[in-house]
Amino acid sequence: MIKSGLVYDESRLNKSRISVAWASANTWTDGSLYGTVEFQFSWAEIVERNPHIYWVEAMTDYSPTAFRFLLSDREITSRQLQPYDPRRDDGPLRMRDGKWYRRGNMTSEFMITADLRLRRCIGIDFVKHHHRHCSLYGSSCPDINRQPQPHRTGGMLLATCSPTTSIPSTSTCVPGACATSTIC
User: Which distant-in-sequence residues (6+ apart) come within 8 Å of 88 by Cβ?
Assistant: First the structure.
């Protein structure tokens, strides 16, 4: 499972006690900003299980700008969150005629108030890490310099993880590697 945890970055939620698992719909030409292991989940299932959507913030210092939404299975009342209706609101996440859309020129970051169970994972991929940026460990990420090949990361994951392994949202069971969760 990808374990939810407290928000520790510069988000407005970093002083809240809300635990989240992070996901993104982005793919990266120059390598993933989130790590070398990509767990893929169904967007339709995530929003079905977490129908309460809240606008959190736009991270305008990021390049490209990141938009952040919180998805929850329950209603949350907080001054830091604004309820968001993708059918009516004019933001970077929309639903029109039963189909989901997002702003493709921005980074999508979804904060989900639940653990992501790997049995619900619809795919796994081993990807190259971005050569300069890491959202999890910054410049101290060992994969920035090491740049493990995807097939090597896959082998390491299989060799070190058991079926009951929990993967914190900010790390993975692959020594020296970081993981991400992607929504499709």
Answer: none
Q: What's the rounded Cα separation, in Å, for the pair 135 and 155?
A: 23
**Strands 66-72, 52-59: pairing kind:** antiparallel
CB atoms near residue 55 (< 10 Å): 17
Around 85, how many Cα atoms within 13 Å sit in the side-chain half-sphere? 3
Handedness of CA 37, 41, 181, 67 (dihedral sign): positive
CA distances from 141 to 40, 130, 148, 167 (A): 22, 11, 12, 17
Winning range, highest mean pLDDT, from 38-52, 132-146, 149-163, 164-178: 38-52
Total domains in the fold of the chain: 1
Q: What is the pLDDT of residue 139?
A: 84
Helices (H), the chain: 43-49, 142-146, 150-160
What average pLDDT does this structure show over 34-45? 90
16: amino acid identity, one letter? S
Q: Is the pLDDT confidence value at 63 over 80? A: yes
Q: Which domain holds residue 119?
A: 2-183
